[in-house]
């Protein structure tokens, strides 16, 4: 263990925290998971032999090259895809179908466009058998929490992207799921909004009993948010490594500039981009672009 | 005046208000103008002559229409028999259009008089009664179509299993022309309204199932998946998510299909005992009251256009979240 390149930043407090997390009861247990898709009669293996355990109130980020099966993994946990082989256990029970114990926030905005913000947040509450009169104040509380009081009666199309994702998050959280699955929820936001949303999310996560399983391809985001980062390998998707993030909680504002952060990022980059995807091919294409003559009024400055 | 005339010729570019108004006006004005030209300018078409003075020709009566050549032949005959005949005594007439092309003003008058003229026989309906009868036939046919077509379409669009069970047969049946079932419908359902309603049902139901299932399939799957992860499933999910999710498009589909129902109406009303607006049209054509025929056809168009406009307006109010269209 001492040989691990990130160990130099693991302070005793961080070490202690990590050890405490691993002693908590597991919530989500992924065992020997396999998944293939059939495409034009051929089987494409997407996930092979994935083993992973998430503990109570842990924040997990999943990174990996595009197409390595991150979304598929989240959808399997959510019960939106069928498991080929292996199993996913939620609190010891096998996952077979979607259920309110696993909330999900999608990358594309998935708010119900015909419902106001309030109705969207109330949706899951009512589905779980709550009456309208008790669901409403509860929903309003959640809306307050993310600062959208003014938009309670607005329709989703009247909100900005960041606001929509905030509503999507509280809609999932209002149901009090044990695990919140998030598939690149902030990918469509601009950097400033994204940081704000990340802070919101950490704030909420610290105050409620929930395990977050967060998929991203943004390494900064993963390091900033996660306790542990699950790094997947592509073709087929396998667990490459589970990285402990060597940063103290709560995250400092300048944590992005700390050596520990940058060291972790460099290390993750080496894991994720160890095999560049056909670099020569790209070079060829660029050459072709250069050969295309362009009618230009100004002389080339290169 | 039209500073963005170029927008007229750029694909999929919205027009300014003025252009829109002008073009909408033109879309009605151009056909009406053509009709006026044919009706009022004597040297355009006018293949017949309306007799104003028989001039001794046995079968000419004042007001009858004869072809130009026949009229000329009779005039030539008279002149041949008596070359010195006073021209005032020759048969005379004015260029006229055939009886089946009434002039705009006649049709406009007919739009009014058709409603005020009592039917030829006591037991026959007035025009407004005929119209009301037609509207009821359409409404019932379309109602039963919706009662069965919409749920089946939604099921087929939601579940692959339902789709495989429902759609192949529907796809086949939709190619069978609804009027072909006329005789069968009469044999089974009698000669009154039931077979007519059945024809409208057959004409719209199968299309409706397929169109509704296609619309349902277009619903963003993320909404369905989101609702599944929020603990909503089965028929409840259809009611809470699928139905409201497709409602604006469903509504638009119904508007389009209602238009089809009107086209089936004319056939439907001819089977069994002829009734409704079709009965009025055939009856008036038999009496050669083509102004009334035109008026009745126009009324169908106007009713269709007005209902569609009302439904479109209503749609905007009903679905405030639906920003497109
Ligand atoms: N329903 C499906 N049918 C067939 N193949 C699928 C299906 N869903 C995903 N795949 C394939 O599975 C692989 C993994 O897809 P997935 O969406 O899980 O990747 P990802 O890691 O989320 O990628 P990204 O970072 O681009 O979002 C891809 O090669 C994709 O083509
Ligand atoms: Mg993905």
Automatic annotation (TrEMBL), chain A:
PROSITE patterns: ABC_TRANSPORTER_1 (PS00211), ABC_TRANSPORTER_2 (PS50893). Residues 28-259 form the ABC transporter domain. Keywords: ATP-binding, Nucleotide-binding, Transport. InterPro entries: AAA+_ATPase, ABC_transporter-like_ATP-bd, ABC_transporter-like_CS, ABC_transporter_ATP-bind, P-loop_NTPase. One of its GO terms (molecular function) is ATP binding. Transmembrane segments: none annotated. PANTHER family: ALIPHATIC SULFONATES IMPORT ATP-BINDING PROTEIN SSUB, TAURINE IMPORT ATP-BINDING PROTEIN-RELATED. Belongs to the ABC transporter superfamily. This is ABC transporter ATP-binding protein. It comes from Thiomicrorhabdus heinhorstiae. The lineage of its organism: Bacteria, Pseudomonadati, Pseudomonadota, Gammaproteobacteria, Thiotrichales.
UniProtKB/TrEMBL annotation, chain B:
Residues 131-311 form the ABC transmembrane type-1 domain. The chain crosses the membrane at residues 22-45, 137-160, 172-191, 197-215, 257-281, 293-315. InterPro entries: MetI-like, MetI-like_sf. It is a multi-pass membrane protein. It holds the Pfam family BPD_transp_1. It is found in: Cell membrane. Keywords: Cell membrane, Membrane, Transmembrane, Transmembrane helix, Transport. Belongs to the binding-protein-dependent transport system permease family. This is ABC transporter permease subunit. It comes from Thiomicrorhabdus heinhorstiae.
